[in-house]
Amino acid sequence: MNLSSAGLPAPEGPGSVSRAPNLPARFTDTFTSRYVDTGDLRLHAVTGGEGPALLLLAGWPQTWYAWRLLMPALARDFAVVAVDPRGVGLSDKPLDGYDTGTLARDMVALMDSLGHHRFAMVGHDVGMWTGYALAADHPDRLDRLAVAEAAIPGLSPAPPLFGSREANDRLWHFAFNRLADVNEQLVSGREHLYFGHQFATKSAKALPDYAVRHYVDTLAADPDALRCSFEFYRALDTTIAQNQKRKSRRLSLPVLAIGGAENLGASVGATMKLAADDVESLVLAECGHYPAEEAPEAMLSALTAFLAPYKNGHASHVPTARGGEG
């Protein structure tokens, strides 16, 4: 039992395991929702399985639910922790702390509270940003890092303002999400239009309607959830400054970089090669921005092979990067 969570109420509502729609068969036999008190905030995590610890962190605008199709198989080999970061789902929604240095510290505190000093991690989208920060800032904590479908602000080359139409269609939400207030005013009451457009245009295989509704309804149900969905982008000035310092400390741990052929493709691997020495790049065919849901079997196969040395208890590297968040 996680002693830090003793006395906390059981998570309830649509964001919890007990209320999430269309979960894989017997999912609740293995996984439960729990609140974890990290000292600074309360995070919602879905945990289950046995073996070495594996942290799963999704990105904008999703929750732990993004991993549901992979979790049962992963739980046969790992103690799986799928978490809602600060501002997301059933986790606390503070006013600040959305830079990746703070988000990485949140994940370290979470895993400490769960009794996991060393762990592997899979991060998607903003979860990839956080995974990079965690590997750079806390190199003694991660054994292996798999990342998917993101560019990393402050590490990846910045696109031009007047880029191609294709690039604009893919990236325009960055500028919009960074606005101070008007974006919330424009999106409030139109969450299904805005976020639905994001899911529809960034996937090669349409996500199930029930999944899109689940994500969007979670954001529409709470003004703080909508606000926080933009805070990751409003904190980009801080994150970029941190990453410009982090990239001087190259990562030595093994990294798997996954891109969807119909979205970022090989650029995910190219991004990680700017920061890490041991990078395996994988491009999933007929897949867009959401590989865990669009191509779950291919992603599971890749993760199983990549994580095998960690599962088998073979130390795969000696951390060389040192230092704080930059």
UniProtKB/TrEMBL annotation:
Organism for this UniProt entry: Streptomyces griseicoloratus
Sorted UniProt keywords: Hydrolase
GO terms assigned for molecular function: hydrolase activity
Alphabetical list of InterPro entries matching this protein: AB_hydrolase_1, AB_hydrolase_fold, Epox_hydrolase-like
Domain called AB hydrolase-1: residue spans: 52-296
SUPFAM superfamilies reported for this sequence: alpha/beta-Hydrolases
Gene3D superfamilies: alpha/beta hydrolase
Pfam families on file: Abhydrolase_1
Region ranges (Disordered): 1-22
Organism superkingdom: Bacteria
This protein's name: Alpha/beta hydrolase
